[in-house]
Amino acid sequence: MALTILTRRRLKLTSPRCFSTTSGLSSEALASAKQLRARSRIEEMDAVQPVSHHLVDTFKRRHNYLRISLTERCNLRCFYCMPSEGIELSPDGKLLTNEEILRLATLFVKSGVTKIRLTGGEPTVRKGIAEIIAELNSLRQYGLKSIGMTSNGLSLHRRLPLLIENGLTHLNLSLDTLDPFKFELITRRRGHDAVLKALDVALKSSLTSVKINIVVIKDLNDSEVLDFVEMTKEHPISVRFIEFMPFTGNKWDKKKMVESSELLRHIQARHPHVQRAPDELNDTARSWTIPGYRGNFGFISSMSDHFCSSCNRLRLTADGQIKVCLFDATEMSLRDQMRMGASDDELLQTIGRAVSGKKEKHAGMEDIDVVTNRPMILIGG
Ligand code: SAM
Ligand code: SF4
Question: What domain count does the chain have?
Fold first, then answer.
């Protein structure tokens, strides 16, 4: 298997720090080009599928993407996500039931959501995930186009075929290192082999898209960036380098963060002919390809170059709160409203109030409110 060979070889690639500019534009010109791009994306989306006014915010962003967290539990303990002292889990009775998830998903899809992504905690530890996917699949009749999942892949390789059969179309696999020892350091657990197996099954499957998420941490896995890029040579995958983000209890330190622009310069030093790949509509990653390679790589630069102007995401936490921004601690409980007997119309009003309170952009990296916001594991990435 090409992947195994790659990890075994553990390519010893050096990290030349070559600094060159990628664009001759002034910062004002870049900002206005970004705004134009965001506006044209919104227009493209308008043309594709109508969205209820409850899902349109005051900055005209149309929210057609819902991320649903299925659980607060996880079978790994990644240091950048989970506080070292662990987290207090909500009692089971406070979590959304399968029926409540389906009711809300139906309401969102009928209001214009076309993409659903399941996350967690680790979504595969939720009992009945295969049935949840099958039920979500029935929402295609109302306009749902894709069902994705973000998973650490630890217990996925045997179950993936059934999830795909039930309707899963997109998989994002979190794999921060190709080195089993570093894997244990990062996740505080064993299981690197199992994740590679899941990746292998995914690559041989009929999934529409397979992506690898890599949170890049200075002096830990930043030296592996070229190895991950090399995986896109033979495999039609996207590897996405994510900037380390601050959340409650994750000991974020600016010095541990590697800006995407620095990574790109590093990759360009090795591959001078990298080309910008077209962005998917509302994709958070800026993507690139190397001529002749089957896949692509990209950067999720939430810290150094946020993508708030084209953000189309809403989040539903496992305990039923709607969150309109990863970095905004404000939440509204759809669970409590449902359990008090609210009608679909009343739920939609609450969703509309949450959406209209969405800020234009999140705070800069030093000012993000990590005190009142949840740890990442309780939001879902
Ligand atoms: N357990 C699943 C997984 O790891 O893929 C899904 C949940 S996890 C919270 C979702 C994504 O968030 C993962 O790709 C993870 O790498 C990313 N993530 C978690 N903490 C992060 C942080 N502090 N900065 C950047 N990305 C983070
Ligand atoms: Fe678990 Fe995913 Fe968080 Fe790692 S990133 S601790 S796998 S929820």
Answer: 1
